[in-house]
Amino acid sequence: MKRIFLAASIVAVSALALTACASGGSGSTSAGTILIGGIAGTTGAYGSTGQAVVNGTQMAIDEINAKGGVIGKKLKFEAHDDGASATTSSQLFNKLVSEGAIAIVGSPDTGPTTASLSSQKKIPVIGAVDDGGLTVYPDGPDKPPFPYAFSTSLNTFAWGGAVADYALKNCKGLAVLHDPSSYGLGGLAGIKLVFDAKGKKLALEDAITENWSTGATVGLKSEIDKITASGADCVDVWLTPQDQASFVQEAKSLGANFTFLGNDETSADSTFSDLAKDQADGMISALLSTEVHPTDALKTFQTKYKAKFNKDSTPFAELSYDAIYMLKQAIEKGKSTNAQSLQNQLNSITDYDGLTGKLTFTEQQHTTINKDQLTLVKFSTTSKSWEPLG
Amino acid sequence: MSTFLARQSPRSRRVTIGMVVLLVAYLASTFGVANGSYGTQSLVLVAAIFAILALSLDLVAGVTGLYSLGHAGLFALGAYSTTLLNSKFGWNLFLLLPLSIAGVGIVGLVLGFLSLRVSGLYFAITTFIFTLVVVVLLSDFSFTGGLQGIAGPVFPDFPPGLAFLGSSVAWCVGLSLLVTIVIIWSIRSSPLYPVLLAIRDAEPFAAAAGVRTSVMKVGIFGLSASLAGLAGWAFSFLGFISPGQFSWTVSVNILVMVILGGINTRLGPIIGAAFVSAFPVVVSIDPFLQEVIFGLIFVVVIVFFPQGFMGLVGSLARRIRARFRPTAVVVEAVEDDASTPIAYAHLAPQEAVSTTRALPAVDEVALAAKNIVFGYNRGVLALNNVDMVVKRGNIHGLIGPNGSGKSTLVNLMSGRMSPNSGTITADGVRIERLRAPARARRGVMRTFQSAVLVRELTAQENVGIGLYSRFPGIAARSPIWPLLMGARRDSRAIAQKSIAALTSVGLSSGWATTRVADVPHGVEQLTQLAAACIAEPSILILDEPLAGLSSGEVEQVSEILRGLKRAGVTVIVVEHQTRFIFEMCDEVTVLAAGELVTTGTAADVRANERVREVYLGQ
Amino acid sequence: MLQVLLSGLSIGAVYGLVAMAFAVVFYVTRVINFATGQLLMVAIMLTAGLSKAGLPDWLSISVGLTASTAAGVVIYFVAVRPVLRFDRFSFAWLVSTLGVAIVLQSAAAIIYGPTSQGFPKLLNRDNLVIGGASITLQELLAIIVAVVAVVGFEIFRRRTLFGKVGMAISSDPEMASAIGARVTAYAVAAFAIGGLLAGAAGVLIGPITYANPYLGDTYGITGFVALMIGGIERPAAAMGGGLVLGVLSVGANTFIGSQASDWFPFVVVVVVLLLAPHGLFASGDALKRLASGIGRRTATLKGAN
């Protein structure tokens, strides 16, 4: 009996508390600030990527605020860790939207969730929406993208295309070993787009489920046997950097003489080269051309970033920084933070001069980074760096 | 309303008021959430869905003792079937509600049937693998959206006239939670609840009371599964589903919610679900630190309050109550030491069993076991070609040295095991292939050598379990028990009969409301006897009813046996105390080393040479 | 075929060691330590960290193993003992050990950062070719360690007094404590052995997976699955479960398709559990078990009607 009263009072109190929250939650935009939400996995094995996204965004926002903000208002950034959990990510998305966020940055881990929610809730998601590709174009590269997902992120289609170009020129046969998420499938789609255009076929394509993020994927040895049997001399390992390093190590210890090709994450930070050490030598990947020939703006950013966070800047920080400036431009042009207006303005940004290159959105193009902005590179252990090819 | 209230007893009036308060609070909070921000909604709705899952898991884990790790898989089936059937085939969402409840329920029944052949941790293992397989299937097929998942269906908004109610999804989830709470709390207040606890803690006792325990377990698991299906149906409206949201770690998380909140409590699972699902979203500090704190809370709460948040609340409540009423003793502890004499009521032997069966002719056979052969392992026979014929209305003793096969024979007669060959008839019907519950329903009841009762229930509640087979449809009615007039009447009847049965075995009313964990051994034994008598058996088998009893209590049992005999009940007693046997019994069967030595009247057997040799040691 | 067997056994040995770490603890205390995977991680991270700091490999490994052993004992005192003292039959240890797991891995992520780091190569450089199949010495070592662990544990269990009393405790702790066995000492020993086995698994797999604070999750899960396959009653059976899981995964990958390793082992497990509900290596010889399994099945079918 007492329990029932206890239950009743608990429910009543929480009801009051919640309605109080509900009424007090929204409306932060009216107070002279513009809220930009951030969702990124800052913990977990990919935490460093999420941290780069948050840091890069924060730098852009601090700079903009120091120069007086946007349309007379200050920007405010509120970022949360989604722990790479889709449920948490959607809870956070809703939380941020109800707090009045005009756009959400991210998520590099749960991109499919944020991209899908953006079109349901009609709120733009920008920046590192996973690795572009199938996350933004869920039905394939030739179908329309999510209307509210604007990715400035590294784009699996672009890297797939660049790597495929290399393979067409230099390989007798290309095998692709990829993970079955939108990340691996996006890379495969990018590669196939180029191969199909030339009427060529892959020697082998195989999906392998990764023990996501910790790189503890096993059974790579039997994949190596299959690839050898397929007659391929080049293999693109569209897995996480940890697994790429494991794969290269296993293949070399088995004496397999492949040319190893990478993906957007291979050269995005030093994870792969640190783990693979000597065996990283000769790995083919692609870098943003701006990373190979950094502009002054990029050099300044990288110095400032290093000074502020005591870490080297990565493309994920730079592309998030770009995303905020593109958003700023969209707000200023439309003189509004209304979602519809933002969508229209973002769709009409052409050749924005960002850290990651000349960036363009159109109705059809919702990823800024494409094949033409990439430079093929090869890792050299003597210089311990990625060197441009040819 | 006021006249309705006036007609009720003070207790049930308070319950009614409580329920009304609860309902108003529920409506107010749902209204608040439905008109709240997206953030509030998302937070509360996810918590509510996990509350449904936690409540349904508590029903199988906390109440019935089956630690399922299959709930994430069942949850996934509900969510994915709703999403896919709606988006690919355009099925109506409200048609999908009963379909996903029934469909997932059936999957649960099959899963339960297959995995309940094993209990304890092995049940956890098979259900765990079920979740694994479901998630792998969802990830590896393209029509499910693969690893990246699929957008859920859009729940229709309220028509304009009802728009003031706010978000329709919030009401939908809120209603699902309410239905779940009603079902679970109803079961907890129904006579099925003690029966389920008995299945968890004292399965042989439940089976002997006529409960078909394996069917019941499968059924409860099926119910729990269908609630998980309901949760899945509702969850699909929250936006986006992907396989990672249903992995086995989610199963473990639901179990964590139950245990952290307080296992086998009304509110614990709800509190646990709210805490675990909301903590990562609400608390916004350095993410690594946040994780550390999250883990620390798990450890600290469980280490200091092994019963979870409800244990914490309970201890706080006791402390507050003690402060306000410093003189009142918190629990009127029943002294367990032998110095306090057990309070027995004045014995009313005539009432011991109020059987309505007509007194039969003395020579008629009540129970006959013929040519019984039984061996536990190949080779060694525990019973070899044993006969035992029990006449109706007799008290029939069964004696023999240790290892003579008495207990085996009792187990064969009561249905815990079946003989390798031979026949057993009760009232002329062959029963040797029936299981214990079926035999109990035919009027063959038994007690156990050492009482196995549900320790956390009172003596009265334990005795009520014995009535399970006498009140039809307890299980079927339990999910809406308090809402049924007839059921409430049955509850009262069960309580009255239980108290009467306890009185009839000589236990005063003080014992009726004491938890069995706190009563001395003798009371426990007598409670067990009452539980067997209450169902008005025609044949009652007592396995060493005197074990551990004081001489006063032995006299008590003798008196009860005489009462039973007067009421026409056939009694079979296995006992070591030969003085008691020869005094009480009309006939006695003697076993030695798995073989029949003799059967005859007490006097004949006492005089038998071989009996003296093998048993009396003279 | 031989390659499948060798690769399967070598990775299965690691799964098996983790499963054994679960099982030894369960055997004595009836507790499943959900932080077992994190003990593996503790050994990996410490070994990697110390060797990066310039310590010789053998010293880093010893410190890593000592730490995982000690952490096992700490888990017993912090998260398990208080719960069991309250109620020996409660499942509350599930929450407290899981809490420890979260704390350990987040703490490691704070200390070392979330990104993978290098791990000493150890014996992973050297390759051995047997009948056309190749295996690295590290993988061979894993198989050897697994065999030593099983044989050593069984000898310890059957031939030493401590082990025999341990058996008694596992079957009836109340009785054992009544005859004067120090149950706590055995529980501490079990958690220590569990920590050591998990740590050993970590050192064996580290050169292949590198060092990551979240590895505990990955191997905790696979070790747990291996435990389920082998059966929970005997540590040696858990090792068997690990080996079976390893061979089945690699075999499925080779003969069916790369993603078959996700589901094939579990299909096998389901069939096994239907036939022999107490795990593959529970007791008795295989044929008898199969026969009795089928017998029991039909009996249950009958009984349920």
UniProtKB/TrEMBL annotation, chain B:
Residues 367-618 form the ABC transporter domain. The chain crosses the membrane at residues 15-36, 43-69, 89-114, 121-143, 163-187, 218-240, 246-263, 270-289, 295-317. Keywords: ATP-binding, Cell membrane, Membrane, Nucleotide-binding, Transmembrane, Transmembrane helix, Transport. One of its GO terms (molecular function) is branched-chain amino acid transmembrane transporter activity. It is found in: Cell membrane. One of its GO terms (cellular component) is plasma membrane. SMART domains: AAA. Its main location: membrane. InterPro entries: AAA+_ATPase, ABC_AA/LPS_Transport, ABC_transp_permease, ABC_transporter-like_ATP-bd, BCA_ABC_TP_C, LivM-like, P-loop_NTPase. It is a multi-pass membrane protein. Signal peptide: none annotated. This is ATP-binding cassette domain-containing protein.
From TrEMBL, chain C:
One of its GO terms (cellular component) is plasma membrane. Keywords: Amino-acid transport, Cell membrane, Membrane, Transmembrane, Transmembrane helix, Transport. Signal peptide: none annotated. One of its GO terms (biological process) is amino acid transport. One of its GO terms (molecular function) is transmembrane transporter activity. It comes from the Bacteria. The keyword Cell membrane applies. The chain crosses the membrane at residues 6-27, 34-52, 58-79, 91-113, 133-156, 183-205, 236-257, 263-287. The keyword Cell division does not apply. It is a multi-pass membrane protein. Belongs to the binding-protein-dependent transport system permease family. LivHM subfamily. This is Branched-chain amino acid ABC transporter permease. It comes from Lacisediminihabitans profunda.
